[in-house]
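Take a minute with the sequence and fold tokens given here and flag any structure token that looks odd. Thanks in advance.
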Amino acid sequence: GLFVSVDHGVHWEELQTRPVSLIKALDISPADSSNRHSIAIGTYGGGAYVSHTGGADWIIANRGLNTTRIGGISVSPAYGADDTLYSSAKGYLLQSDNRGGSWEQIPVSYQSLRKRIVNKLIKLGLPRETGKELLAFKEIQPVYPNAVTLSPDFATDNSLFIGTRYHGLYH
């Protein structure tokens, strides 16, 4: 379930969500001009849900998802202006630029990440041949994004962080 406290955790109230399945991810937008927050949740088996009424009502946000097993969800700090959400699921990262109305897949490639890291190591003095050997190594494990968050300055720096199974943190 999803619970809210308005007194620093002294008392808690359960918010009714659809479905009442395992909530694996949660993020809340900054307050809008009406001083209301949007809430986005990702569930294991129920997909993504968004509330623009502080949790009073929920909208199913699964159009474009290949799975309903959501590992992470993040609301843009400028959500009131850009309507952007990011979500992670097994094997892919998703972006919605319409408040969860639909999702578009963003490719996440371990090989491209490895190449960027090796190039930085070469600039720091790693012998070029060692770098080539590292790039030639074939990784068996695929990239599985399972957590996603945005920089508080996302509107200006576009920094997105993804936690993955097997491959650490992407930025």
Observations:
- The chain has a mean pLDDT of 79.
- The two ends are 30 Å apart (CA to CA).
- The first helix runs from residue 79 to 82.
- The first strand starts at residue 2 and ends at 4.
